[in-house]
Design a protein that fits this description.
single chain, about 140 residues, mainly alpha, Arc Repressor Mutant, subunit A, 6 helices, about 10% strand, globular, DNA-binding, Tscrpt_reg_MarR-type_CS, MarR family winged helix-turn-helix transcriptional regulator, WH_DNA-bd_sf, transcription regulation
Length: about 140
């Protein structure tokens, strides 16, 4: 019999929601950002000139969520749109100076939150968790 509270996909979902909710409150309070927005800022800090399609693939968020987050960041002046290659309909996103400055504030806070989240685990447990999550992600992609 299926029991939801012992069903691993459910446990992963509930845990992910709990972690995301805690982090979302911190980013909303400190930076006025929703989770999709800070994810885009972080990705753009790693590599400028990323298309929205590439952001969808990288974040595994749906197109509409990425589009709304990008629009909000452009409206705030944190991100700029630049033409993407020869396709006039496609744009690449890049962080503005203000966006980079905000990222410099976000990154240390993100690392602090991660540290607080994982402080009950030992180094070996953290490494094993990361390996296990990577395997589960690969397995879930194979199911698609």
């Amino acid at each position: 019999m299926l029991r939801l509270d012992t069903f691993l996909p459910y446990q992963l979902s509930v845990t992910s929601n709990a972690v995301s909710s805690a982090i979302a409150r911190a980013y909303e309070t400190l930076f006025g950002l929703r989770i999709p927005e800070w994810r885009l800022i972080t990705i753009l800090a790693e590599a400028d000139g990323v298309s929205q399609q590439a952001l969808v693939a990288r974040t595994e968020m749906d197109k509409m969520t990425v589009s709304r987050a990008a629009q909000a960041l452009v409206a705030r002046g944190l991100v700029t749109r630049v033409p993407h290659g020869t396709d006039k309909r496609s744009h690449a996103l890049t962080l503005s100076g203000e966006g980079r400055a905000l990222y410099q504030q976000i990154a240390p806070k993100a690392l602090e939150l991660e540290e607080r989240l994982l402080n009950k685990l030992g180094e070996r447990e953290i490494e094993q968790l990361k390996k296990t999550l990577a395997k589960l992600k690969a397995a879930s992609q194979a199911l698609r």
